[in-house]
TrEMBL record, chains A, B:
It comes from Kwoniella heveanensis BCC8398. Residues 5-348 form the Isopropylmalate dehydrogenase-like domain. Its cofactor is Mg(2+); Mn(2+). The lineage of its organism: Eukaryota, Fungi, Dikarya, Basidiomycota, Agaricomycotina. SMART domains: Iso_dh. This is D-malate dehydrogenase (decarboxylating). GO terms for molecular function: D-malate dehydrogenase (decarboxylating) (NAD+) activity; magnesium ion binding; NAD binding.
């Protein structure tokens, strides 16, 4: 049997609940199909650890994680800890240190999900958003001078490297090429941001030459939001910077019905380091511990993890089970249903076992 | 009679057409009401000038403009000139040099405009977006090193000053206070951007103390897009950074029905320098010269200009005439009508004369 070692970081808030659901579904699919074995290494990295012991993670955690085949991540964020601390202690270092330079977020209106945009129906908004995930506006450089004075200045330095832009662009053209419409939209804001974002556009031009069968166009991020609302079917694969990808992928989730099903993979396509799979939603302390969280985003992330690990059959089954539970209205409140987290989880497991 | 000297910069593309419409409406309202006199100083600043003479503007243009009471701007952008050149030669220097630190963009679903978001109706999405307009991600600093090599690095430096953040925050709290719901949402991305955006949040906290009657909350820009789609009525006044304001205001225009009516004022609230009024849409070369552009955004911008100049009665009339033409379906194609730019203009003038 093929064996895969998964580092599991439930993290904070509802991250813990949806991770439990996900592991239940993963165990079910493994039992059903056989042929592979997942070992789960559950880690206590997170805000509770920070509050108790002063750090999110033990020393050497990145080297430790490096030995796993993939990382499943729940969520991070705690009302008692400023977000910029929790995120830079836990999720952002993994994306950057493991060179997970691709963040990939598919969006579509699934049957069973009420449409949010007038005139759209299930099957529409079939988008894949590819977000640069290691540099740009999240490079982490910047600082504050004359703190607290009237003349204080704070800066944020966005850093774009040709290498960094080229690799994400190539991945995006390849993704577009692999999809039926072979359509790519490159998003930037190069009219206002003349250095990093202009490099972005230039590299797109250059890389596009290697993919003559891909139809592509450029959009400014502001106009892009209008196009997503007004002409959703004109879009297919989308590639954009770290910050713009953050914004546009949330918008895509909002337009396609729910952030509760939006999932995300942070990939190192070179497979030098482990890739990371997580739901797009956060820790959501307001609904924590109430068995209200929608586990589907987390479970769908895990399906992508299975696919990444080469377990396509298992991935397909998990995805199918999730879709069927939604189509049958077996959903949590955010999707209009009345089930609890635990009930949705059992439904998905049940459906999976029948498939 | 009160007299106001308006610098008129039609600029490029449909900017020229919608400016012509606007001046016709302004002349009509002046004739109708009396008591004030507008003098229009039409300037040829723009891409045609650049292509013919090598520069967008004559020497000393900013000092020259400084003598006007307000600036009306059409649009800039030309297929033959890279956008980052045209914008940094014409529109961005005005915003920055004249310390027009407030960019204000109201959005609402007007009666007569088909709704884009399921469950919204005219009157919903009654938002005022206040965008910082002189610094932040548009500070203009940055550069490129090792250009063209594999190890090229390009940077964009976002600069936030306490002074700059405080003044926009205070304006936003005052705007919120002046509106019935007294509700303000402060948008940033301080979880990922720990310096400039954290300063933003801190200043919001501090300034909020001066406005105890304003209810306010903080949102991350990504989650904000979801809230705009899913809970539009929970929002009223919104304040955000230069780049986020650019993105969110386009999204607001998209959600409320059309970029063709979205208008924008770049204000220096200290009235040291002239303020600038412009439609949100760009030069749109694809429809240029076809009499297809929607002139309403430009005309509504001019209404705001009249208000800024103290001509509230005239401003109200122009706005009312625009709204009525929309409600009666006397619109261009983007709003579902079948009229030309020139016909919409005559309709607005006719309605105005009857009011
Ligand atoms: C938690 C936060 C740092 C993160 C981001 O901005 O990347 C989140 O919003 C996301 O999209 O994964
Ligand atoms: C033309 C461009 C520089 C401008 C901006 O990004 O500010 C435009 O999109 C706007 O919103 O006024």
């Amino acid at each position: 049997v093929r064996s895969h070692k998964i580092a599991v970081i439930p993290g904070d808030g509802i991250g813990i609940e949806v991770t439990a659901s996900t592991l239940a579904v993963l165990r079910a699919v493994q039992d059903k199909i056989g042929g592979f074995e997942l070992s789960f290494d559950e880690l206590d990295y997170g805000s509770a650890r920070y509050k108790a012991q002063g750090s999110y993670t033990p020393e050497g955690w990145l080297d430790y994680l490096r030995k796993s085949d993939a990382i499943f991540f729940g969520a991070v964020g705690d009302p008692d800890v400023p977000d910029h601390i929790s995120l830079w202690e836990l999720i952002l270092p993994m994306r950057q240190k493991f060179q997970q330079y691709i963040n990939i977020r598919p969006s579509s209106i699934l049957p069973g999900i009420p449409s949010r945009v007038v005139g759209t129906k299930p099957g529409d908004l079939d988008w894949v958003i590819i977000r640069e995930n290691t540099e740009g506006e999240y490079a982490g450089q910047g600082g504050r001078t004359h703190v607290g004075t009237e003349w204080e200045v704070a800066t944020e330095l966005a850093v774009f490297t040709r290498k960094g832009v080229e690799r994400v662009m190539r991945f995006a053209f390849e993704t577009a090429q692999s999809r039926p419409r072979k359509l790519l939209t490159v998003v930037s804001k190069s009219n206002a941001q003349r250095y990093g974002l202009l490099l972005w556009d230039e590299v797109a031009e250059q890389v596009s030459k290697e993919y003559p069968d891909v139809k592509w166009d450029k959009m400014l991020v502001d106009a892009m939001t209008v196009r997503m609302v007004a002409k959703p079917t004109s879009l297919d694969t989308i590639v954009t910077t770290n910050l713009h990808g953050d914004i546009l992928s949330d918008l895509a989730a909002g337009l396609s019905g729910s952030i509760g099903i939006a999932h995300s993979a942070s990939l190192d396509p070179t497979r030098t380091s482990p890739s990371l799979f997580e739901p797009v939603h956060g820790a959501a302390f307001d609904i924590m511990g109430k068995d209200l969280a929608n586990p589907i985003a987390a479970i769908m992330s895990a399906a992508e993890m299975l696919r990444w690990l080469g377990e396509a059959e298992a991935a397909d089954l998990v995805e199918k089970a999730c879709r069927q539970s939604i189509a049958e209205g077996k959903t949590t409140g955010d999707l209009g249903g009345s089930l609890k987290t635990s009930q949705v989880t059992s439904e998905v497991v049940d459906i999976l076992e029948q498939l």
